[in-house]
Specification:
Blueprint lengths: L11 H11 L4 E7 L5 H14 L3 E5 L10 H12 L4 H14 L4 E6 L1 H7 L1 H11 L3 E4 L9 H8 L3 E2 L2 E2 L5 H10 L4 E4 L12 H15 L5 E4 L5 H7 L5 E4 L1 H12 L4 H15 L2
Parallel strand pairs: 1-2, 1-9, 2-3, 3-4, 4-5, 6-7, 7-8, 8-9
Helix pairs in contact: 2-4, 2-12, 4-6, 5-6, 6-7, 10-12, 11-12
């Protein structure tokens, strides 16, 4: 297993990718906004996603200004905030999921402000206590400010960074040096939920990221992956596939129609997992 830099603790995230490799498939990383549409349904949705085959859960921390996210996740954030969601409830939700599933890897996915307000060290300690395995912070540049990476490492947690198509070779190397778990390559510039870009270019860029990072961590690709066919195509060159907006839309449609979203999400995640082998 790959450990966070400088940490003696094993990584559940690394174990998830290793298990997928041993089974001859690519890892499925699924994003869901915590507390959407409410705490209890969100808990059930996360557990259902793991049951259906998600290897890593990205638990979105509700925030009022999700600048990197598209319309689907922005709407999910609004629903979650209206239901009382926030950092505290996200940690409670993580704890509740971990109580029922000791194996699935969980990454707290959010923005810098709620972490900064708490303090990086306190956030990392609380994340560890809640059963999280790592964190991804959209707008905290790990290569420029090491505080969050160091705080997570001290707790044995992974910092999962975003790498953009515009990231320079020097920046990719710097980011990879402090990363743990996996490298999240964003397939396009812009916001989540956009159309999947030219895969030849994305494939070439993923190869470059592997070379620049020395192959130390698996590379998962996200943004724009909406269907099992998309997932299968990206799995042809990535170590993992990240699906977010499409899963959130499944929940949104079911809730709008007055249906329990859990069965529909579980079916969708099962189709994604089947597409990955």
């Amino acid at each position: 297993m790959t450990n966070p830099p400088g940490s003696p603790f094993p990584s559940r995230i690394a174990g998830a990718f290793a298990k997928a490799r041993s089974q001859g498939r690519k890892a499925l990383v699924l994003y869901l906004t915590g507390c959407d549409p409410d705490f209890e349904t969100s808990r059930r949705l996360l557990l259902a996603a793991a049951r259906a085959g998600a290897d890593v859960l990205e638990l979105g921390v509700p925030w009022s200004d999700p600048s990197a996210d598209g319309p689907a996740i922005q709407a999910a954030m609004r629903r979650a905030l209206a239901a009382g969601g926030g950092m505290g409830t996200a940690l409670d939700l993580c704890r509740a999921v971990r109580a029922d599933n000791a194996d699935v890897a969980v990454v707290l996915f959010g923005y810098a402000n709620p972490i900064f307000v708490r303090g990086a060290a306190k956030f990392a300690a609380q994340a560890k206590q809640a059963g999280a395995d790592g964190a991804l912070c959209v707008d905290w540049p790990a290569d420029e400010d090491p505080e969050l990476a160091q705080a997570l490492s001290q707790q044995g947690l992974d910092l999962v960074p975003l790498i953009a198509p515009t990231s320079t070779p020097e920046r990719v190397k710097a980011i990879a040096a402090v990363a743990g778990g996996f490298l999240y390559y964003v397939s396009l510039t812009g916001i989540t939920g956009s159309q999947l870009p030219n895969l030849d270019e994305t494939s070439a860029r993923v190869r470059q990221v592997r070379e620049l990072s020395g192959g130390r961590l698996p590379v998962a690709v996200g943004f724009g992956i909406a269907t099992p066919a998309d997932a299968r195509a990206v799995a042809g060159f990535a170590d993992g596939v990240v699906v977010g907006s499409a899963a959130v839309r499944v929940i949104e449609r079911a809730v709008a129609a007055g249906r329990d979203p859990v069965p529909e999400l579980e079916a969708f995640v099962g189709e994604l997992r089947a597409a990955l082998g």
